[in-house]
Amino acid sequence: MTELTKLGVKAIRDGVRAGDFTAREVAESFNSAVAAAAELNAFIVTTPDHALAAADAADKARADGKKLGAMAGVPIGMKDLFATHGVQTTAASHILEGFEPQYESTVSQNLWDAGAGMLGKLNLDQFAMGSSNETSYFGNVASPWRKDGTNAAMSPGGSSGGSSSAVAARIAPAATGTDTGGSIRQPAAFTGICGIKPTYGRCSRWGVVAFASSLDQAGPMARSVEDCAIMLGAMAGFDPKDATSLQMDVPDWEGALSADLKGKKVGIPKEYRMEGTDQAILDSWEQGKAWLKDAGAEIVDISLPHTKYALPAYYIIAPAEASSNLARYDGVRYGLRDLPEGAGLQDMYAETRAAGFGDEVKRRILIGTYVLSAGFYDAYYNQAQKVRALVARDFEQAWAECDVILAPTTPTASFPLGSLEDDPLTMYLNDVFAVPASLAGLPAMSVPAMLNSDGLPLGLQLVGKPFDEQTVLDAGLAIQQRAAFDHAPEKWW
Amino acid sequence: MSVDKQTVAKIASLARIKMGDDELEHLVPELNNILEWVEQLGEVDVEGIEPMSAVIPNRLRLRDDVIDADPKTAGGRRDDVLANAPAAEHGFFGVPKVIE
Amino acid sequence: MSNYRIQGQTGDWEVVIGLEVHAQVTSSAKLFSGASTAFGAEPNSQVSLVDAAMPGMLPVPNRECIRQAVRTGMAIEAEIHKWSRFDRKNYFYADLPQGYQISQLYHPIVGEGQLTIEADDKSGIPEDKVIGIERIHVEQDAGKLMHDQHPTMSYVDLNRSGVALMEIVSKPDMTSPAEAGAYVRKLRSILRYVGSCDGNMEEGSMRADVNVSVRKVGAEELGTRTETKNVNSVRFVMQVIEYEANRQVDVLESGGTVDQETRLFDVATGTTRTMRSKEDAHDYRYFPDPDLLPLVLEDDFLADCRASLPELPDAKRTRYEQELGLTPYNARELTAEVETFGRFETLLAVTAAKIGKPEAKVATQVANWALSVAPGVVKGLGEEANLANSTPEAQATILAMQDKGEISGGQAKEIYEIVLREGGDPETIADEKGLKQVSDTGAIEAAIDEILANNQDKVEQYKGGKDKLFGFFVGQTMKAMQGKANPAVVNQILKDKLG
Ligand SMILES: [Mg+2]
Ligand SMILES: [Zn+2]
After folding, report:
1. Which ligand has an atom closest to residue C166 CA?
2. 3-state SS of chain C?
3. What are the TM regions of this chain, as residue ranges (chain C) (predicted)?
């Protein structure tokens, strides 16, 4: 029999439907793989029973001749930013340790409704703030990848680093991620998997611990474009509980997938040719162009003049929103309470938040508080929102010339955990290519392209028009077919 | 614009995060680095540009005035609301005594 | 300009007042969640996950709250902003679960408007005065803290958390406690007419933040103001102003300065004091709420709002005077409260129909009845009055009998008294108790003939030009008829007989 943990979403779904194996067998295989991979620290809690229950439900439905859901029999990892009913939800913070939501996020509910099961809650950067998965209260996540010939633990990227690590290590066929400024795409690129952030508003934010509301979007992370299309279809949909949710039908992305790009124009933004970008990354970009051309697309040069300013604008807007979104963690209604003898209410807040938030979270809350404080609002926040409008306008103008944009996902491959610890700015630069699409709310995907000379994966990014996930997925598929990226990390855990 | 230790202390207090001297001192150069870097935004000509208010052209949807229409946003679930409270007594959340 | 002055040792001071009135919007569910807004529920029983600010919860606005704010804006002749937006006001407090209040700072839904307070000599308001309104914005209410239930803890009840409020911000146009009182009363009346707030001040549906400053009479510049929070009656608003104005004058005259601060009103002592808990909360870091998109109002929506507006107090008062011919006093009294004009208009319609005359012809009679006659009878009866018996039908029947001359004013009261006490049909009561006037000319004529015959001397004097004696003959006739003669008939016959 096939080794079940090598299978992805589509293969599991089809195999369960065809009766090649049972969903229970699949769940058991992945539960064991998860249990054996503690060294990766990809999970904060595991929920093998949840996976088994969903699997049994899928097997029973099949036995009863019922129609199986789009994700029936597929056990997945759930980023620990999604509230899961009765299952600890922490956002990888101490301040939410032990918090058991009495509600289920819309996205996770959609997945369960589609027949998926949960292997566990995946580790992440605390409150999704980070690009290396080193800010979790529950410890760093290790990438399953290592530089050729070394044993140093590498970063799986962030903030969806538990997700990327688990999927790349084949301990989960797929996982949810969230992307605020690259948090799906960058970890996908670092670990040689696919990940798509849909158009802002496609996936409900209801029940997802908020980082920066105007940027946060959930999306799937998996090992193929098809798997992403299937899972995104299950996650997405209009939700009246989210005022920013798109009131639109969810297209059949999987059904419409096509790697034939005839008639499509692919834009190459010249501003993404930035200093400090690895030569190997630039090479992979060239290769990507050739692949898309081969798939029938026309390659055109475009300009996104405000690219350079996207990242600094992001580092004003996201912390500003976060400073406010995280005010609710105050020790009153849930989570940690640190109340020294004789302390008053305001002391309790300050003590609780000092003890409950990690350094990076505090740093961003302070930045956000500062840029919104009296006298600075116009110079920082308002200016950043104006620049954001310009970044979005750049894209709008680009759509007159192309249908989809090809760019690298990250300026470098993964790096060893700890190597950028004291250098927040350099860390932030990881997301330089990812952030513009986030600011503009556009669908964007990373697909694996190749390994660099160290044997580490590199990803290519596709950015599409609003609501046009299909072209993004199609172009991703064209690359996937040509890159034939079938590398897997060597098991060391 | 740059921040000094006193300013950082003020922001930390505004954000209700208790910070010791060491921490404040450590943060001053870190925050200044970041602030200096984001200040390049000042170069951008934003004449006539409205600050972005909706990422995707979309307008605010309004809800009907119906009580408890959806259990997920309904009242009448006090136990759920209090389930994770560090101090819940007699149906209330408890906090250290406040003098108004 | 009011002539309200504080006489200080260094001269006369005037006071400048602005009011921020928080009015709870009439809606079934909260502004951003489906939880009920009903008053007086068990603690935390009307709290949704959204209101408790659980992680990942999101606000979705209630259309009715927006509609009511727009209608209110229209009622104060304000500019309605078709594009508005919600902002977050950030501060930490135990009654504020999100750590921010969703409000509107930069782009409120309603812009500048106004209302008129009426002249009232008694209160030192010599003439009608227009008070400017700066804006109305929509925002969330906070929860409630209880301090007296536990020795070391305060208790938090979030039932009110997320209830929709309109904050109605006046311009600093008021210059006396009386003007401020009149403003709150007028605003309350408008809100209740519109139906956007029940105006119930005891239940906290309306409360005012009172901004007070003082300056020397004639000074151009405004003094430093204090804001006294959450004052929940008209009387208290006036007390706060009185107290604060005097306190500030004392501070200034003894060489001190007034701190710009938030204060609390102490009902028991009628004084104000610094509010400790809000001392350092002045940097609210307002910014647009990223969970909410801009609020864009469609023309259809606005047209519906406008079409649904009732006749408002000022317009109604004018109509009562001009079309119904009521006195200014009666018109004002009848239009002050929704309940009053509601009862009046019903009674007027039923009475006019019963009598078969246009409303304008019976309005004065009905107004007098509603404002003075009927309340007088009710008051006289005290506990004995059962108001449920006082149907419009019964009252209209009494008024119609009176109009036809079947009963006198005194009889109307007597009949009404019986109706209030025992119920029943006024006509039957009048018949059974003999409470009817005699209009039978024969009986009256006989009585008059007898009186004239017995008073020949006075008849001569009258005919000789002593007109005043007419009253004497009327009085004698009524006495002879035991007060039950129809005065009009008596007058007519007397005139005929005396030539
Ligand atoms: Mg106020
Ligand atoms: Zn307010």
Report:
1. 2
2. CCCCCEECCCCEEEEEEEEEEEEECCCCECCCCCCECCCCCCCCCCCCCCCCCCCCCCCCCEHHHHHHHHHHHHHCCCCECCEECCEEEECCCCCCCCCEEEECCCCCCECCEEEEECCEHHHCECCCEEEEEEEEEEEECCCEEECCCCCCEEEEECCCCCCEEEEEEECCCECCHHHHHHHHHHHHHHHHHHCCCCCCCCCCCEEEEEEEEEEECCCCCCCCCEEEEEECCHHHHHHHHHHHHHHHHHHHHCCCCCCCCEEEEECCCCEEEECHHHCCCCCCCCEECCCCCCEECCHHHHHHHHHCCCCCHHHHHHHHHHCCCCCHHHHHHHHCCHHHHHHHHHHHHHHHHHHCCCHHHHHHHHHHHHHHHHHHHHHHHHHHCCHHHCCHHHHHHHHHHHHCCCCCHHHHHHHHHHHHHHCCCHHHHHHHCCCCCECCHHHHHHHHHHHHHHCHHHHHHHHCCCCCHHHHHHHHHHHHCCCCECHHHHHHHHHHHHC
3. none
Query: In angstroms, rounded to a whole number, what is the distance separating the alpha carbons of residues C459 and C466?
Result: 9
Q: How many CB atoms lie within 10 A of CB C223?
A: 20
Supply the ipTM of this predicted assembly. Answer: 0.97
| Domains in chain B: boundaries | 5-42
Q: How far is the CA of A64 from the centre of ligand 2 (A)?
A: 58
Query: Which numeric CATH code is attached to C441-498?
Result: 1.10.10.410
Which amino acid type is present at position C225?
R
pLDDT of residue A1: 47
Q: Which two tokens stand for residue C394?
A: 């019964």
Which residues of B, range 2-21, sit inside 8 Å of A by Cβ? 3, 7-8, 11-19
* Dihedral (Cα; C75, C77, C79, C80), 10-degree rounding: 20
pTM score:
0.93
Q: pLDDT grade, residue C108 (50/70/90)?
A: very high
Q: Which residues in chain B have Cβ-Cβ distances shorter than 8 Å to A380? A: 38, 41
Res. C440 pLDDT band, cuts 50 70 90 = confident
Q: Rounded to the nearest 10 degrees, how much is the dihedral formed by the CA atoms of A300, A301, A303, A307?
A: 100
Mean pLDDT taken over chain C: 93
Minimum distance, in Å, between the CA of residue B23 and any CA atom of chain C: 22
Nearest to A373 among C61, C92, C285 (CB): C285
Using 70 as the pLDDT threshold, list the residues of chain B that sit under it.
none
Report the separation in Å between the CA atom of B73 and the middle of ligand 1, taken as the mean of its atom positions: 29
CATH number of B5-42: 1.10.20
pLDDT at C1: 60
**Tokens 């006989």 -> residue:** C446
Ligand 2 mean position, distance from CA C103 (Å): 7
- The answer on pLDDT for C495 being more than 90 is no
Pairing of strands B92-96, C153-157: antiparallel
Name the 3-class secondary structure at B54.
coil
User: Which chain B residues are closer than 8 Å to A316 by Cβ?
Assistant: 38, 41
**Encoded tokens for A140:** 């760093």
Q: Return residue ranges of chain C for CATH 1.10.10.410.
A: 441-498
Domains of chain A: 2-259+444-483 (3.90.1300.10)
pLDDT digits (tens, 9 = 90+) for C450-463: 898 898 898 888 88
In A137-279, which ranges are E strands? 174-179, 194-197, 217-222, 265-269
User: Which regions of chain A are under pLDDT 70?
Assistant: 1-2
Compare CB distances from C47 to B16, B81, B97 and report the shortest one's residue. Answer: B81
CA atoms within 13 A on the CB side of A424: 22
Residue that the structure tokens 């020790």 belong to: A331
* Surface of A (89-108) touching C: CB under 8 A: 89, 91, 96, 99, 101-103, 105
